[in-house]
Amino acid sequence: MIGCGNLLRGDDGVGPVLVRHLWERGVPDGAKLVDGGTAGMDVAFQMRGAGRVVIVDAAATGSAPGTVFRVPGEELAQLPPLQGLHTHSFRWDHAIAFARWALAEDCPTDITVFLIEASGVELGADLSAPATAAMEQVISIIERDYLRPLRPASRSEVTVEFTADGYLRLSAEVAGARFPSDAVAAVVRDDVFWLIPLRGPRSGGLLLKQRNPAGDRSVLIHELLREPLLPGVFRAFWDDEQAALRIPLPRTRAPDGGEPR
């Protein structure tokens, strides 16, 4: 997935900004995120050998700011000629045309382009509200259609471990499938511990830290508990409605369901 545009010019930077948001969410194996900036030829060569390519760029069609255009691959057959093209005038369409010429058989055939109508491209400006809202829409589509299928699957019912020194530990499977950004919020409510995935470190909250080469994660949570919790392995359930991991907190019975300790 390639984000094109100039970060210094307001909505023209929506592609690179989108890439940064996806980086924070976590990049699954088999996917590659590229900040293409304004280097069109580099964008072309980044496509080499890819199975599927998604390009995100700003547009200036005169439509309402924030309008999203999805251009499927079959509509990319007629692209502008390369003759006389200056390197500083490269756009996404020029990059694809150049890639087809330069990469030949190594150029992907499955290419989709998302264009977001810009509101303003003033030097030093931030993304406008319409472009930001459109970017979130495109992020959701990319996550659903391209990234989620690459993330490891996880069962609805799993196990987690509370340790004697106050950590919550998650397996690599659970962390990779449910918390790919490693940023989480934790809440205790009615004797249920909720672990909620966040988009990334900029969202605040807690960070899951890798604890072994297998990719298992842990996070210090003892300060959130009003009373000590029996250490051990407990059942946890993914709550689709709340988009969070729900962990009941039995405090009077052993975690294996035996007699009280």
UniProtKB/TrEMBL annotation:
Enzyme Commission designation: 3.4.23.-
Superkingdom classification of source: Bacteria
Alphabetic keyword roster: Aspartyl protease, Hydrolase, Protease
Keyword Hydrolase recorded: yes
Keyword Cell inner membrane: no
A GO term for molecular function: aspartic-type endopeptidase activity
Pfam families: HycI
Entries under InterPro entries matching the protein: Pept_HybD-like_dom_sf, Peptidase_A31
One GO BP: protein processing
Family of the protein in this entry: Belongs to the peptidase A31 family.
Protein name, per record: Hydrogenase 2 maturation protease
Organism: Mycolicibacterium vanbaalenii (Mycobacterium vanbaalenii)
